[in-house]
Amino acid sequence: GTSFSFQEIRPLNPHQTLFISHVFLTKHDATNPVADAVLPTFSKGVTDFNRQVFDEDLFICESVHRGCRQDGERVGFLSSLEKRVHSFQESYLDFLNKG
Questions:
Q1: Three-state secondary structure call for residue 25
Q2: What b/e string do you get for 78-99 counting C-beta neighbours within 10 Å, with b at 16 or more?
Q3: How far apart are CA 21 and CA 37, in angstroms?
């Protein structure tokens, strides 16, 4: 519970997506000189780790976006438990078709 991150993936058009990553650190004891000394190094480590994870996921994210530009006649298979996934996919495709 010392840090967390939030990523936004915003499709801009069928060929571009904006990726924004926010990294947050929890409050620390400002009167503790050790915390003040360690915080910059810890912050850099958390940021570097998030960058590494995104770099590993980049290929997958690009492939998913590229797949949305493919033949619209293909139909994927979703279970009855994936109604929210289906709704998101429909909204995403509607957005891309407007761009």
A1: strand
A2: eeeeeeeeeeeeeeeeeebeee
A3: 25
Q: Report the alpha-carbon distance of residue 12 to residue 80 in Å, rounded.
A: 30
Unique residue bearing structure tokens 């509607």:
94
pTM over 0.85: no
How far is 41 from 38, CA to CA, in rounded Å? 6
Residue whose entry in the numeric block shows the structure tokens 């996934």: 85
Tens of pLDDT along 41-91?
888 998 899 889 888 888 887 777 776 666 556 666 677 788 888 888 889
Task: Tell me which amino acid residue 98 is.
Answer: K
What lies within 8 Å, CB to CB, of 12 at 6+ separation is 18, 99
